[in-house]
């Protein structure tokens, strides 16, 4: 889980770098990390299923295994979202992916997403309960709504492709943040047995 969390974070960091700098190598790195995370996830799922089938875990262990299966799914989805961001960045290479005035807002989302992913990594690594993710999640939700509204407004002065990609990218960051929140809740459930 620790390795998967780090890969999910790095994948989105590289995807964000690809967006900001038209960095093809960073885009490829995000895709490679996402694929590596998928390989680890498959091994973890197989081990979890074997454990459930052979060991008959008691309530605490069962709660932990089931919660970590869900955490693994969230981490997989996070890396898939990073991969989607990097694919959009790659298709525009070497041209800028987004209009110049949109990039700072997207980078603010990227920074907030990275903060959330960093906290998730700490929770998984240290076993700490839910660190506050609300501040970073609120930043992402606010910017996402702002970008989506701008992209569909009549005042939008860029291409339709840029409007679609702006809306998609903002949605990808928003979903990434939602998965971080879901992981924090699962980890709290492991520790307290409360939802």
UniProtKB/TrEMBL annotation:
Classification via InterPro entries: PhoU, PhoU-like_sf, PhoU_dom
PANTHER family: PHOSPHATE-SPECIFIC TRANSPORT SYSTEM ACCESSORY PROTEIN PHOU (PTHR42930)
The name this protein goes by in its record: PhoU domain-containing protein
Organism for this UniProt entry: Corynebacterium riegelii
Keywords linked to the UniProt accession: Phosphate transport, Transport
A Pfam family reported for this protein in Swiss-Prot or TrEMBL: PhoU
Gene Ontology biological process terms from the UniProt entry: intracellular phosphate ion homeostasis; negative regulation of phosphate metabolic process; phosphate ion transport
UniProt lineage: Bacteria, Bacillati, Actinomycetota, Actinomycetes, Mycobacteriales
Domain PhoU: 3-88, 107-186
Superkingdom of this protein's organism: Bacteria
The keyword Nucleotide-binding is assigned to this record: no
Keyword Cytoplasm set for record: no
């Amino acid at each position: 889980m620790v390795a998967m969390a780090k890969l999910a974070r790095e994948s989105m960091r590289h995807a964000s770098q690809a967006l900001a700098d038209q960095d093809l190598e960073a885009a490829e790195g995000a895709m490679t990390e996402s694929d590596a995370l998928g390989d680890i996830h498959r091994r973890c799922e197989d081990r979890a299923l074997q454990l459930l089938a052979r060991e008959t875990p008691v309530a605490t262990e069962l709660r932990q295994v089931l919660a970590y299966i869900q955490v693994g799914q969230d981490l997989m989805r996070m890396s898939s979202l990073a991969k989607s961001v990097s694919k959009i960045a790659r298709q525009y290479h070497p041209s800028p992916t987004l209009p110049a005035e949109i990039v700072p807002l997207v980078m603010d989302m990227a920074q907030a997403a990275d903060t959330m992913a960093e906290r998730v990594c700490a929770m998984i690594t240290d076993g700490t309960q839910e660190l506050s993710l609300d501040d970073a999640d609120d930043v992402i939700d606010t910017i996402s709504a702002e970008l989506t509204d701008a992209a569909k407004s009549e005042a939008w002065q860029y291409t339709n492709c840029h409007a679609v990609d702006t809306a998609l990218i903002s949605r990808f960051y928003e979903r990434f943040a939602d998965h971080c929140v879901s992981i924090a809740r699962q980890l709290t459930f492991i520790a307290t047995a409360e939802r």
